[in-house]
Design brief:
This protein has one helix spanning 52-62; strands at residues 18-24, 31-37, 43-49, 68-70. It is an alpha+beta fold and 71 residues long. The protein has one domain (18-70). A four-stranded mixed beta sheet has the order 3-2-1-4, with helices on one face. Strand 1 and strand 2 form a beta hairpin.
């Protein structure tokens, strides 16, 4: 049986061949964090960004705050 009070392990992301980006909607202003594949340019969504806490979590996952914005 799993222990429900056990500390969850932090997820490790494999960023090989991927660039962290924030996709912004020009119409609605909605921002989505994710990764763009360097070879194909395909965007993979990770999370919606709606608060400063969301940004901090995404930057922590990436390991950098220097993230490109795409429209």
């Amino acid at each position: 049986m799993k222990n429900p009070f056990r500390r969850k392990e932090e997820k490790k992301l494999d960023l090989t061949g991927r660039t962290p980006v924030i996709r912004c909607s020009i119409c609605t202003g909605e921002e989505t964090a994710g990764f763009r594949d360097n070879e194909t340019g395909v965007f993979t969504e990770v999370m919606k960004l709606s608060s400063d806490r969301d940004y901090e979590e995404f930057f922590r996952m990436c390991g950098t705050e220097d993230v490109e914005r795409i429209y």
